[in-house]
Description:
The chain is α+β, with helices and mostly antiparallel strands.
Amino acid sequence: MSKYIDGFVMIVPKDKEDDYKKMAEEGREVWIRHGALQYFECRGADLETQEIGGDKARTFLEMSGAKANENVWFSFVIYKSKKQRDEITAKVNAEMGEKYADYKDFVMPFDPNRMAQGGFQVEVEG
Length: 126
């Protein structure tokens, strides 16, 4: 069975990582409840330059422009298919929109304008 993945890269200030993790734990509950197969939030831990075949790859720090007081988080949600992703995302957005509509002073623990997001069709799995 082919799977579909939503992937995200966020730049989170180090002093906001606890707030981000709390928000992510809440997100996990919502996505899984609505049918996502798996949900991952991964904090950067080894983001130094790696050598690949004699060449040096760009790091997530370089690509993202993260500063010394920020960390890169890589997150992804796994679904059965793109169709299922679209259905689950609609439910999650409706629920979260309703919940946070009353939170006029809610501030995201990261800058959404510095976030990257994309959907990916799994082609090779193992």
